[in-house]
Amino acid sequence: MRRAALAASTMVLLMVWLTGCAASGAPAGQVAPNRTAPQLPYEVGVRTFVVDAGSSRPLPVTVWYPAQGSQVAGGRFPVVLYSHGLASLPELHSGLTARWAAAGFVVAAPAYPHTRRGAAHFSRADVRNQPADGWRVIRHLIRLDRRTGDDLAGHLDMQHVAAAGHSAGGITTAGMFTSGHPARLRAGIVIAGGGMAGSFAGPSAPMLFVHGTADSVVPLSVGRAAYRRTPGPAYFLSLLGQGHGEYLVPGRPGFAQVLGTTTDFLRWTLYGDQDAARRLPTTLQPECLMSLPSRSNTVSRTSQFWPVLRQCGKRLRL
User: Fold this and answer.
1) pLDDT single digits (tens) 93-111
2) Residue 263 CB: number of other CB atoms within 10 A?
3) What's the distance, Cα to Cα, between the start and end of the chain in Å?
4) What is the number of alpha carbons within 13 Å of residue 215 lying toward its C-beta?
5) Residues 77, 78, 80, CA angle at the centre, nearest 5°?
6) Which residue has the higher pLDDT, 14 or 73?
7) What's the rounded Cα separation, in Å, for the pair 188 and 41?
8) Has domain 2-21+33-316 been given CATH number 3.90.1150.180?
9) How much is the average pLDDT of 276-292?
């Protein structure tokens, strides 16, 4: 039974506190004040709009939101800005984003002008401009929340915002955490991505990295390098033997674990849900979990962690 349980798991969760060793109980960090997080899933509504339609960089945005019947559900909900990867589209990530909405988050996903699927002038280099696009969406949502008559008005908690993204969208996410970024941006999730020049500066915010160990598009080392640069509390979720993103498809190996971990991370950082915080380190088997020393420790974190990753990988393949 023990061997079967280990074989069923496909991940390793690495929890690190860069300002000191982790203590028992809930993690520390800049998170939302305690308030009630939803206990039951919502229905999910979807709408689209275009930010700056007449500009040189119009941004079509898809929004998933908690619903009750045909209306937005009562209450204010934290916001997650989700960024797609190269040659992708927001709707291709709905397996994850719609489930976040059902868990009590408003998820806004722009289709970036020069990296989305079907872009007239596709350019990988344009990723460097996407963090600014992400902030344009956030500013639009702030205005929308105050707009009389809009269905989402009064339902957006714009003081509790997270950014998340896959691949180039993960790099975009990292690029939003630059020096001087507004404190309303409280957490980030980088999936199969890495850092950007100037990222992980400014107000400290918890970060979650998700990466397949067999990713041939964005190598695991890229995610590890970005993780090492984070100044605040950080998690690293390694999907053993997984590639660049098949684990984002419902029903595929790893999806349930990624959904559970990312949702608990968002519940902790945006709702202040301490039960979700305590669940994070217990998502996996204890044999595949370790807490590393702080950045100031003279022992390199790479030399300590990666032997354990290999050891856990061997156990998981029994």
Assistant:
1) 999 999 999 999 999 999 9
2) 19
3) 12
4) 24
5) 125
6) 73
7) 23
8) no
9) 51
The single residue listed with the structure tokens 């669940």 is 279
Q: Which residues contact 259 (CB under 8 A, 6 or more apart)?
A: 96, 99
Strand 234-239 versus strand 43-51 pairing type = unpaired
With bands split at pLDDT 50, 70 and 90, how would you rate the model's confidence at 22? very low
Instruction: Look at residues 172, 293, 182, 184 and name the one whose alpha carbon lies nearest to residue 226.
Output: 172
Question: Residue 195: pLDDT above 90?
Answer: yes
Cα–Cα distance between 13 and 242 in angstroms, integer? 14
Burial class (CB in 10 A: 0-12, 13-18, 19+), 274: middle
Type of residue at 211: H
Average confidence (pLDDT) over 59-85: 97
Q: 148-157, 172-181, 209-218, 301-310: which range is least confident on average?
A: 301-310
Place of tokens 């119009």: 58
Residue located via tokens 């809009």: 150
Residue 18's identity, in one-letter code, is L
Residues 6+ apart with CB under 8 A from 126: 112, 113, 114, 115
